[in-house]
Design goal:
alpha/beta, 2-enoyl-CoA Hydratase, Chain A, domain 1, OB fold (Dihydrolipoamide Acetyltransferase, E2P)
Length: 451
């Protein structure tokens, strides 16, 4: 009996911290919303639910980003069994507003904004109706699932909507007279006061500590969930600018490599850039095995062109086409719209132009570096200064000899006891035929049949 009492006491002591100190998780949504952040959310939210806790607070400050990434994050939040809170710490623009609406509670600090969620392409131009229709319904259904007004949510996406009145929770009709975006032709963005008035936000608080105090967690165990070093690297490498640069360096590096014999620095740099681009895309679920196979096939064809087939022909061009196709499809979401395709095309174009420009600057700087000057000639060796690229046989012009081999048109001849490599003007000359040197072009000895 005494032993059982001791065991119960030990178990109570182990459970006491959990009972008295609920777990509070804080996740940051700052900067660009990309697929790396979406992958982080898809992994972390279910894990936090499995570990157990009381509340997940999102510290949000973003201008938005990829729609597909925001949708993945929204789904993870809607499936959370732990209470979720969006603390809009300055701004939740575009895709950031969708993520905010997916939380159980929305808190905005003074001077914060949310909205302006219309879909744009890579040129910041409004996307087509197909993309806008999808985003309108995403916003409306997400807001509705959390008891918020879907009309206001849709007006954040579509400036053609006109909202005159709202029916609030008590059934009363409320006239909208202080939201500029509620009128047709104006895209809706809410400041803190209007978001609170129309029920799109729940509280105004100016710091995370104030949020914690409001929920009674200021003295509780708070855990900031941050990406691991590997996830930080993946997010950096999958950033649109960085990934475009990697893609371009890889593509241009291989192009330069197959134009020169053997294998050298351009090819190695190109393969490394493509390896980083593709591996991080696979980790962030931006690429599939099909795209990987296309990429590997393209690299194999380029290898065949570089090491097996001389010159640059059909095999190399086919390899480049396969690689471009793989990289292009990696820029597309799972269900691409015409806007997504247009954005991917522009991404490829900008990447190539930026890569060529960057490569040009790199070569220019390299030619001026001390290392390059150590292995290159600083001055040209001109004929006026006594330099010559010839074999020094100009005195042999007009002299005759014998063709030791058949000249087809190149071969070997014996002229004044010297064995020389010679070439005809294109004619075939049989072995043991008497020949005459008619011209010497640098190190090229031109012969013809002796008259």
């Amino acid at each position: 009996m005494k032993t059982g009492s001791v065991m119960r006491r030990k178990l109570l002591l182990m459970l006491l911290p959990i009972i008295l100190f609920p777990q509070v998780y804080v996740l940051e949504v700052k900067g660009t919303i990309d697929m790396g952040l979406a992958y982080f959310f898809e992994r972390q939210i279910p894990q936090l639910n499995q570990d157990g806790g009381d509340i997940i607070i999102l510290d949000i400050d973003t201008f938005g980003g990829r729609v597909d990434a925001a949708t993945m994050m929204k789904n993870a939040l809607l499936n959370s069994e732990i209470t979720t809170v969006a603390f809009i710490n300055t701004k939740a623009i575009s895709a950031g507003s969708l993520i905010s609406l997916a939380c159980d509670t929305i808190i905005m600090r003074s001077g914060a904004t949310m909205g302006a969620t219309t879909v744009v392409d890579v040129q910041s131009q409004k996307a087509g109706e197909k993309a806008q229709s999808y985003m309108r319904e995403e916003m409306a259904s997400t807001a509705e699932s959390k008891g918020r007004n879907p009309d206001i949510a849709m007006a954040m996406v579509d400036e053609t909507l006109d909202i005159d009145t709202l029916v609030i929770a008590e059934g009363d009709t409320l006239y909208i007279d202080d939201i500029e975006g509620a009128n047709a032709g104006k895209l809706l963005t809410l400041r803190t006061s209007t978001a609170l008035k129309y029920g799109m936000a729940d509280y105004q608080m100016n710091s995370l500590s104030e949020v914690l105090e409001h929920f009674g967690y200021s003295e509780k165990d708070i855990t900031r969930i941050e990406p691991t070093w590997s996830e930080i690297i993946v997010r950096f490498l999958t950033d649109p600018i960085v990934s475009s640069l990697l893609m371009t360096l890889g593509f241009l590096g291989l192009i330069f490599e197959i134009q020169s014999p053997g294998w050298g620095i351009p090819g190695s740099v190109g393969l490394l850039a493509l390896a980083l681009f593709f591996s991080t895309s696979l980790i962030a679920d931006l690429a599939s095995m099909t795209e990987l196979l296309f990429m590997i096939g393209g690299i194999i064809l380029l290898g065949v062109e570089a090491f097996v087939i001389p010159g640059f022909g059909v095999v190399g061009i086919l390899g480049i086409i396969l690689m471009i196709y793989a990289m292009f499809t990696m820029l597309l979401p799972a269900a691409p719209t015409p806007t997504d395709i247009n954005s991917a095309l522009w991404g490829l174009t900008i990447a190539v132009i930026g890569g060529v420009f960057g490569l040009g600057l790199m070569i220019k700087r390299m030619l001026k570096s001390k290392s390059w000057q150590k292995i290159s000639l600083r001055e040209s060796e001109t004929q006026a200064e006594g330099y010559s690229g010839s074999l020094g046989l100009e005195s042999f012009i007009g002299k005759s000899g014998m063709a030791l081999t058949s000249l087809r048109p190149a071969g070997t001849a014996l002229i004044e006891d010297k064995r020389l490599d010679v070439v005809t003007l294109g004619d075939f000359i049989e072995k043991d035929t008497e020949i005459t040197i008619i011209r010497i072009d640098g190190n090229r000895i031109v012969v013809d049949k002796k008259a």
